[in-house]
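Title: Prediction job returns without error message
Component: structure pipeline
Severity: low
Priority: P3
Assignee: unassigned

Description:
Job completed but the reporter wants confirmation the result is attached to the right record. Sequence as submitted:
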Amino acid sequence: MSLRVITGLAKGRKLKSVPGDITRPITDRAKEALFDILAGDVAGSAWWDLFAGTGAVGIEALSRGAAFVRFSDLHRAPIETIKWNLEHCKLSANAEVRRGDAFDMLAAEPDRQFDFIYIAPPQYQLLWSRALAVLDENDGWLATDGLAIAQIAPREYQPLPLRSLEQIEERKYGNTLLVFYQQK
């Protein structure tokens, strides 16, 4: 699959894919729909691309005027790919790249708040629900009016019993389901 930045400062730039099959990049259709939904809320916002893979979602946010994006992933190959893609798009200045376990990072004391936390882990392992459960217990990461957005396969979806987060919307684009959560 060819990845590209859809619009903004880095419009049209092609992104490098992560070698192997440890990531599942978002389709351009789903990415474009996501940013159409968020529209004017992206400019000046802070993002955490949690299971970042290629960094395509966070890079799109930066290209569209996000003030800051933290990219994190467990594996070395995605981290190196994200750094390359950020340099290639000339968007490194407002980015931070961290290698580590997403669940450990979410369980840690928040060092800042994010307007958007994008959760797109490997499929069919229920990692998305585990990440939301940890975020639900440590919701200081999310700004008061912020959104957590899970990208999952539709057949993986199940309602979650959450204490401080509530599902507010879901949108399906082919084999991609975007599920939106905000604080209660």
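Comment from assignee: result matches the submitted record. The domain at 3-183 is CATH 3.40.50.150 (Rossmann fold).
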